Amino acid sequence: MCRSIHAPLLLVLMCLMNGSNFAYDPFESSLSFEPEPHVDINVLFVSFYNGMAPNNPNVNLFYNNQKDGVYLSPGKGFSKLDNLNGRKSVVMYWNGNCASFFAYDPSAEGNHQKIYWLIKEDGIYHSWDNSSWQKRKSWTFNRC
Ligand SMILES: *[C@@H]1O[C@H](CO)[C@@H](O)[C@H](O)[C@H]1NC(C)=O
């Protein structure tokens, strides 16, 4: 990650931040990353898991403008293999609510190729390891 000819100053900054916990700012999307040289399988894995309590209605999920939605009942997951070229959108409907965001945004995910989303009653959570979660999105009632 520490070799690029594009923006040496930015890179020095990134390398400095690399040692500490680099908090991603969703509004700063101008950073661009390059995959690690040793990563030779350029496949994106995106996972969605409905972690709501069992009595909840299904979540209807539309990945990247696909016409057919996927119904996720509580406790069910759905995953997708995709290319790493460009952003992948997702729209979810649940109980009269909607959430719309980028399930994958190359400028936000660094060299991570596995992206996990956890769907809860209070919003949608993001993870790179399916274990430590950060809330990224709240539901909005009746609109996206
Ligand atoms: C993520 O973790 C949950 C709970 O441990 C597990 O059920 C699920 O299979 C995991 N998802 C993936 C894609 O590994």
Describe this protein's structure:
The protein has one domain: Immunoglobulin-like (Sandwich), CATH 2.60.40. The chain contains two helices and ten strands. It has helices at residues 8-19, 106-109, and strands at residues 44-50, 59-63, 70-72, 77-82, 88-94, 97-104, 114-120, 123-127, 134-137, 140-141. Mean pLDDT is 82; it is low at 1-31. 2-acetamido-2-deoxy-beta-D-glucopyranose binds at residues 47, 77, 79, 130. This is S-protein homolog. Keywords: Signal.
Using brief descriptors, characterize the structure shown.
144 residues; mainly beta; Immunoglobulin-like; five-stranded mixed beta sheet; five-stranded antiparallel beta sheet; 2 helices; 11% helix; binds 2-acetamido-2-deoxy-beta-D-glucopyranose; S-protein homolog; signal
Number of helices: 2
Distinct bound molecules: 2-acetamido-2-deoxy-beta-D-glucopyranose
Shape: globular
Q: Oligomerization state of this entry? A: single chain
Mean model confidence by pLDDT: 82
Text of the CATH class: Mainly Beta
Q: Major sheet: size, sense and barrel closure?
A: 5 strands, mixed
Strand content: 35-45%
DSSP strand tally: 10
- Give the proportion of residues in helices: 10-25%
Order of helices and strands: HEEEEEEHEEEE
Tell me the radius of gyration: 17 Å
Strands across the major sheet, in which order? 4-1-7-8-9
CATH topology: Immunoglobulin-like
- Architecture (CATH level 2) name: Sandwich
Number of domains: 1
- What class, by secondary structure content? mainly beta
Distance between the termini: 36 Å
Which parts are unreliable, with pLDDT below 50 for 5 consecutive residues or more? 1-31
Protein name: S-protein homolog
Keywords: Signal
